[in-house]
Amino acid sequence: METRYNPASFETKWYNFWLLKRYFHSEIDPGTKPYVIVIPPPNVTGVLHMGHGLNNTIQDILIRMYRKLGFNTCWVPGTDHAGIATQNVVEKKLLSEGKTRESFTRSEFLNEVWKWKEEHGSTIIKQLKRLGALCDWERERFTMDEGLSRAVKEVFIRLFENGLVYRDEYIINWCVRCKTALSDEEVEYKETTGKLYYIKYPLENNNNYIIVATTRPETMLGDTAVAVHPDDNRYKQYWGKYIILPLMRRKIPLICDSVVLMEFGTGAVKVTPSHDPNDFEIGKRHNLQFINILNPDGTLNNNVAPYNGLDRFRARERVIEDLKKENLIEKIESYKHSVGHCYRCDTVIEPYISKQWFVKMRPLAEPAIDVVKKERIKFYPSRWRGVYLNWMENIKDWCISRQIWWGHRIPVWYCKKMENEDCRIKNGVIVRRDQPKECPYCGATELVQDADVLDTWFSSALWPFSTLGWPEETEELKYYYPTTVLVTDPGIIFFWVARMIMMGLFFMKEIPFSDVYIHGTVMDAIGRKMSKSLGNGIDPLEVIDKYGADALRFTITAITPTGQNLLLSMDKFSIGQNFANKLWNAARFLKMKVISDRIQTIDLKINTDDLSFMDRWILSLLDKLIEDTEQNLRIYKLNEIAMDIYAYFWHEYCDWYLEFLKIDIRENTSLTKRETAIYIFNSLLSLLHPFIPFITEEIYQSFPHSYDSIMITPFPAKLSINFDKEESEKIEYLKELINGIRNIRSIFLAGREEYVGINVEDTETTARDLIKEYSVFIKTLAKVKEINFLKSPESVLRSAIFVTKYGAIGIPLSDKIKIDKQYKKLLKEKEIISRRVIKIQSRLNNKDFLSKAPFEICEQTKEDLDKFQGKLKRIEESLKMIERIYNK
Fold this sequence. Notes:
Oligomer: single chain
Shape: globular
């Protein structure tokens, strides 16, 4: 082994080794229970970000861990064609070459996209491999490969045949930048400070007017009514009257509708059925005219001739200018409200009337609600169950058509002739698996395919079964479906998780997975979501280059509580790096000082009949660690597993057991003790491998070993060591005694190596026997020159005393010790820490901070307070001891 831990020297080597051995690949084995995960397919446009890092590390840990537990693990990878995002990327590339989409035929443009995909689409897959993600790469799929495309077409047709897919004109979310419809879930709402405009609408044949408040005055050009609430007595006298629409001079009615909010604005609202979802419903109820004023690119169309061609926001300015000229603006107020933005390009979306394809969601949602209520599918953490159910119980139909070229084209053709009654009844709509040559209703041959493609999430919703060969009844589908767990973040519960459940139940008649683990979102150190616009992201590849993949994996797992957001800064990765260094150094010590010719392999077994007190203690803790690991694994508390292993390895195994072992080695320790040390270390390597696979493989291979790889070693088994409470108390006493002496040394002998004597209150037989038996350990680890048993150590002049469970311990202090410097240092440190505590308490007492700060920031602040209060308490105890001994 190299003297220093250097991950760059072996990470690529071992990943290629695993690939060569095909450890990633799963074959059908009826005698073994499968454990299956389908990867949330990253976009082909994507590059690895820290969210991917967390998500895929979790999945990789689960796959590696359950493999050790004897399951036939299968992790299905793949990428998503990401319709809107990919088309945007290619269009930007073409624009840099002076071309647009319209410069090509549809077929030519799609060739350009496929070329881009072949060149760049595998970038994120290569990056996932650097992270250590050991997917079943032989099963890699793409949402537009031949098999998945067939599955998408089959699903659309079967839903259509079951009356669950329909085409209708409706208000949808329209992105004027992408020039396509979006589903409700693809709209991100942001609180925006805008304006609320109060506009005078003159009454017909009357000098009065009604004041209407709106945030989008340009849409008034498409108004076809003004509405008030039927209980609003302010407007009763105007019921049935007509209003002259400002600027357009069009006569529109004043109507009553209970959907109007009397407290908003003036209680009178403009009704624009083609540009507002609520107004659309009002328009239907009152049989109003529908006037579309927008072109697909967000400019105004010729239905509003004076403003034709103006961009929507420039049109807003012009409308306000013209209203002011006619003295029709009552007032303008600053106004905060939520404004919808396209989730892909961040453009403000427009409610827009359009003919689109929809899926009826209610019939699909009901069984998907039932399986969660009956806990056939469980959410971890459980709070997401309520979020899921609330959305599902209020679900709306899903707009699935998109006005772009890259994607699964809708398998619908239209008869242009419609030459008989049957064809006209069907509106000339022909749904087929293959392109029809003639209309099945009237025989006409002039057919045109629907130009739209399906929403990207439509194909993703089929992922758990389409990737396994559906609609064919493959052996893989029978064996691997349903999958086991879905690992994802909260952002796509509605986009993806809910839709997979619905589609799985409808087409497979079975849930797609039994568990849904929702991990948190990666934030920066002050609780902001990482994003390109803020420039606060951390590139995982930079972390891997600097610290190693294992350090990244261990850090983000260990510091991310189950289901909570992760606050991350670059310096945090030193946690994983320091841990890897510690593991590396422990391995080097064991290899040089402990392993011998008598130990033929690291994969050894232990004879539990010949164990010392110390051996039984450390092995009993290993038993508990193994048990806790299995329990926490079942409920996805991976951070607790990581921290439990960390604490056991660093604080019990290294800080104590190996230190005891080093002393034993001088006395030519027994083979059993050496074997115990190696057995425990090998068990820890096995438990740690899913978290830090590269370093554990490198260390395992450097020892004599029985298996080809640590990856295929079994999960450590419990030895069921009997170590009772009384024995545990003895160990804790020894640790307390040594730590107590070390603490006093740090106060009075800071930086000095001289040995001290200790006086033990000789009143407890257990303590006396234990100290005598382990005196060599106490003297070595605490730098003690002699141990005296006295009736009362307090009788010793100038003694530093601490009290243990079994009595007091006194350490006589020499007059030569210069205490003033240490005393002043502690006073200064107390002052600094006290100010810090007061500052943190002030923040936590501030109601505004607690109500506005992100949950993660509040929790971190509370942790900081506990940490600094603990430190302050230790300083104060040290000061009191000095004051008592030296009369300060």
